[in-house]
Design a protein that fits this description.
This protein is α/β, with parallel strands linked by helices and 330 residues long. It has a single domain, classed as TIM Barrel (Alpha-Beta Barrel), CATH 3.20.20. Helices cover 30% and strands 17% of the residues. The chain contains 11 helices and 12 strands. The chain has a 12-stranded mixed sheet. Strand 1, helix 1 and strand 2 form a beta-alpha-beta unit. The longest helix is centred in the N-terminal third of the chain and has 13 residues. Bound molecules: S-adenosylmethionine. S-adenosylmethionine binds next to strand 3, strand 5 and helix 11. S-adenosylmethionine (SAM) binds next to strand 3, strand 5 and helix 11.
Length: 330
């Protein structure tokens, strides 16, 4: 499925819940969130139907996210059913890792082995602070559990924040010396109300890369982009077993290569993370629409995908992106 700018839209991100067991300061605004009601969330069978139709239109890559996907009841049977849908070449999950120790075996049995795990600090107090109460030990046990069970690739997502974890850049980078993780530094994005809450904390990937390169020989990984690594620029420290990725969504946006469509937890198609222009699928689904109708709504969303986002690193951009990340599905 090509959009108006010749981008092949083959990647669907599915948020299965807006609920989370953490309250990350850059994701959930300080005043909290009003959560969706049970009936506002797409049922699993509705999501599976949308994914099946999307696969028929050319989607080959699906990522399940949230909120925290592992807090939704029934997530394992759902992942199992997704994995069995013909045509999905790449199924992955984004999680904060806190429940991974409990779910590692079940996820593996469901056939899911590609994981992105969010981890913004290696320091117990700082982790507790940024997640508003989370336990670093739980997240680390989760990472150990999936590593021990042979999940691969394991990508560790670090949202880089000035004055918060800029002093941990080398610690994160050095994780890749001994473990085959891909540590990915993500630029802070002013999504929803959190943009206003986090002014002054943006840190460009180039600064992070520079700091690592001043301390370690950093080599670009050739051909990494062809391996479904998405927008990350991939490097490795000479001699290391893992990789380091940089996701410069703000300073060096990759809209010209964006192949994504999002399905929000409340059943809307969102063709750009930063644009609130969404297409409702929930009402049509619940009023008995045909698969053809779903397909035409998916095509409509793709046709409306903007050429590029206009978001700048700092400030309050609620005019363009008023939904918070936890509701969209990062
Ligand atoms: N709960 C899961 C997790 O923690 O990974 C999945 C949902 S979370 C919204 C998905 C990703 O979005 C995480 O890697 C998180 O760090 C990222 N994210 C959320 N808000 C962000 C922001 N304002 N800027 C950059 N990344 C953000």
């Amino acid at each position: 499925m090509y959009d108006n700018y010749h981008r092949d839209i083959n990647y669907l991100r599915v948020s299965i819940t807006d609920r989370c067991n953490l309250r990350c300061r850059y994701c959930i605004p300080k005043e909290g969130l009003s959560l969706l009601g049970h009936d506002d969330i797409l049922r699993y069978e509705e999501i599976l139907r949308v994914v099946r139709v999307a696969v028929g239109l050319g989607v080959a890559k699906v990522r399940v996210t949230g909120g925290e996907p592992l807090v939704r009841r029934g997530v394992i049977p759902f992942m199992t059913a997704l994995k069995l849908l013909p045509g999905i070449e790449d199924l992955s999950l984004t999680t904060n890792g806190v429940l991974l120790e409990r779910y590692a075996a079940d996820l593996r049995a469901a056939g899911v082995c590609r994981l992105n795990i969010s981890l913004d600090s290696l320091n117990r107090e700082k982790y507790h602070y940024i997640t508003r109460g989370g336990s670093l030990a739980d997240a680390l046990r989760g990472i150990d559990a999936v590593f021990a069970r042979g999940f691969a690739p394991i990508k560790i997502n670090v949202v880089a924040m000035k004055g918060f974890n800029d002093d941990e850049i080398l610690d994160f980078a050095r994780l890749t010396l001994e473990r085959p993780f891909q540590v990915r530094f993500i630029e802070l994005m002013p999504v929803g109300h959190t943009g206003r809450d986090n002014i002054g904390k943006y840190l460009a990937c180039e600064e992070i890369r520079g700091e690592i390169a001043r301390n370690h020989p950093l080599l670009p990984v050739p051909g990494a982009r062809d391996r479904m690594d998405g927008p990350a620029r991939i490097y490795r420290i000479d001699g290391g077993v893992g990789e380091i990725g940089f996701i410069a969504a703000m300073s060096n946006h990759f809209c010209h290569r964006c192949n994504r469509l999002r399905l929000t937890a409340d059943g809307h198609l969102r063709s750009c993370l930063f644009s609130d222009a969404e297409i409702d699928l929930k009402d049509p689904l619940r009023s008995g629409c045909s698969d053809d109708r779903i397909a035409s709504l998916i095509r409509e969303a793709i046709a409306k995908k903007p050429r590029k986002h206009k978001i700048r690193p700092e400030g309050n951009y609620l005019g363009e992106c008023g939904k918070n990340m936890s509701a969209i599905g990062g």
